[in-house]
Every structure is written in structure tokens, then in C-alpha cells.
Design a protein that fits this description.
Blueprint (H helix, E strand, L loop, with lengths): L1 H4 L5 E2 L5 H26 L4 H29 L11 E2 L15 H24 L4 H28 L2 H33 L1 H11 L2 H26 L10 H18 L9 H26 L4 H23 L2
Parallel strand pairs: 1-2
């Protein structure tokens, strides 16, 4: 790990022979082609039109690789040196975001442009540092090829993903984000914030002991988070409903449930009862209005309706906890 971090064991680009530079170009084109294929596979189910763009880009990379291989065969023979980008100090690297699911369509498009732009800049700078005429010519041709890839991505995008289709894909991606993260997260935040109000404030006014109240709130928040998270993940695998990964939904729901309860639990780490209770009440106020805002912003719930449902309901639960605690 340390050797990779400090670049130990890697070759300087300036030390590579012309044959090794050509071999590096071949392996890089091959890797980028496989990355584009992985992008296409990851997008195919939800964004079939954009997947066609990356299929075509993968074919273009394969064509360039074949041309480079033929050039190597004519000049140096059949045996291509094994050298890849990770073997060269300072060479650009690709972050394995193609392994992540689901793939974000806008992120993938931007990443593809970055890939080609990085390769273009690298070959261009490498050509400037090369004195051998043939090697410099080769690097210049590679830079031009990578630059043309950037414009090719735009042309392919216009061909396969016209504006109407692109807008539809962005809408689909937004909808998937809502179903997988926002909806379960909001449900968890509401449950964690509102359902723990009564037990926490009942314990607070019944005992007027901040540490005991903190323990009640902590146990209620963590317990609710675990319960809600497992329930969300277990009751729907997402295949028929289209709500996405049950693990991601369960994590979003469980974490937000726990945070919702911890928000007004943590103030009870303050030793003074009335100070802690005042801070907790202020936190509750902001929690409830945050929930109303999220409902309005992402779930398109009218703001007054969201306010009535959340703020009024939370206030009633809050009052119930105080009354029970003073009974």
C-alpha cells in the first residue's frame, strides 16, 4: 500500500522506450473500452438510450486498440510488453466508479468526458517532453485521437439521446433517488423524531435527571433505528416495486430514524435540566420544520399540508410527553 502511495516500484514515463509507450497506449485503450462497456451494462436497464452511447464508445476504443496493435506488429513484432497505467509514475488512474450500482447518468457522462480529456492532456504533455521524432509524432496522434473522442461523445449523445430522451432519463434518475433514499429516509426521520418525543420528554419531566433521560432517548433512538432499518430492508426486495436496493433503503431508513431521535436526546448531556430541556425543545422545533420542508421539496406535499401534518402532530406528541411526565 505504501509503495503504491509513494509511487515506489513504478517507472518514470521518461524512461519508457517507444515500444513501451505504444504498449501502454494499447493497454490504456483496452482498459477504457472495458470501462465504457461496464458503463453501458450499468445503464442499460434504466437508461437504454444512453447505454447505446457507451456501447459505441467501447467499439471505438476497441478499433483504436486494434490499430495500435497492428502498428506494434509492423514495427516491433508480435510480443507486446506488459505495461499498464498503474506501472507508470504520474500516469492518470481511473476510479472504479463503474462498479457502483445504480450508476448516475449525469455522473457517468461527465466521467466519460473527463476520461478522454485526461488522456488527451497526458499524451499532449508527453509529446512535449519527447525528443525522438517518431515517438513525438506517435504521442501527438494519440492526443488527437483522444481529443476526437470528446467530440465523438457529444455526437453519439445527440444521435442516441435527443433532448426529450435525456430529460426523461434525468426524470427517471430523480424518481429512483426519491424511491431509494428520500422516501425511506424521510419516513425514518419522521418516525425517529416524532415517536421518541413522548418517551424522552416524559422521562425528562418524570425524573428531572438529564443522564437518565439521555439513556432513555439513546436506547429509544438506537432501538428504533435498528428496527425500522431491518423492517424497510426485509419487507420489499425492490424488484417489483422498483424502489431499489433493500440494503440502501434499509440503511437510509435506519440511520435517519436514529438521527431523528438523537437530535433531541443529545441536549440531555447537559447537566442542568432546564437548560437541556430548552435546547432539546429548540432542536425539536427545527426537526419538525425540516421534515415539513423535505416533504414539500421532494415529495411535492403542499407546504401548509406538510406543516399541519408534521408540526401540529409533533407538537401534540411533545405535549403528551410533558403531560405524562408531570402526571
Amino acid at each position: 500500500m505504501l509503495s503504491r502511495f509513494f509511487g515506489l516500484g513504478r517507472r518514470d514515463f521518461s524512461s519508457l522506450s517507444e515500444q513501451e509507450i505504444l504498449a501502454l497506449a494499447i493497454s490504456s485503450e483496452e482498459d477504457d473500452g472495458r470501462i465504457y462497456s461496464a458503463y453501458a451494462d450499468g445503464l442499460r436497464e434504466d437508461f437504454p438510450q444512453s447505454a447505446k452511447v457507451f456501447d459505441d464508445m467501447a467499439e471505438e476504443e476497441a478499433h483504436h486498440r486494434d490499430v495500435l496493435i497492428e502498428t506494434h506488429r509492423r514495427r516491433f513484432g508480435e510480443k507486446i510488453p506488459l505495461i499498464r497505467r498503474e506501472h507508470v509514475r504520474g500516469y492518470y488512474e481511473r476510479r472504479p466508479d463503474w462498479l457502483v450500482r445504480p450508476l448516475g447518468i449525469d455522473h457517468v457522462r461527465a466521467q466519460a468526458e473527463d476520461m478522454e480529456e485526461q488522456a488527451y492532456r497526458f499524451y499532449l504533455e508527453a509529446a512535449k517532453r519527447t525528443t525522438d521524432a517518431l515517438t513525438r509524432k506517435l504521442l501527438g496522434e494519440l492526443a488527437a485521437a483522444e481529443k476526437s473522442h470528446v467530440s465523438m461523445a457529444h455526437r453519439l449523445g445527440a444521435k442516441h439521446v435527443p433532448e426529450g430522451v435525456a430529460a426523461e432519463e434525468r426524470q427517471q434518475e430523480h424518481r429512483q433517488f426519491i424511491l431509494t433514499y428520500v422516501q425511506p429516509g424521510l419516513a425514518g426521520l419522521m418516525d425517529g423524531s416524532i415517536s421518541t418525543l413522548a418517551p424522552i420528554f416524559a422521562a425528562a419531566f418524570a425524573t428531572q435527571n438529564t443522564w437518565a433521560t439521555f439513556l432513555v432517548g439513546l436506547s429509544a433512538s438506537v432501538g428504533a433505528g435498528i428496527s425500522m432499518g431491518f423492517t424497510e430492508a426485509a419487507h420489499d426486495d425492490g424488484k417489483l416495486s422498483g424502489r431499489g436496493s433493500p440494503l440502501k433503503r434499509g440503511l437510509a431508513n435506519g440511520i435517519m430514524t436514529m438521527l431523528g431521535g438523537l437530535g433531541h436526546t443529545l441536549p440531555y448531556l447537559i447537566s442542568n435540566f432546564w437548560t437541556a430541556t430548552t435546547v432539546a425543545a429548540i432542536v425539536v422545533f427545527f426537526e419538525l420544520w425540516t421534515i415539513a420542508f423535505i416533504q414539500n421539496r421532494y415529495m411535492e406535499t403542499p407546504f401548509l399540508r406538510a406543516t399541519f401534518q408534521v408540526v401540529l402532530g409533533g407538537a401534540l406528541v411533545f405535549a403528551a410527553g410533558i403531560l405524562i411526565g408531570n402526571a
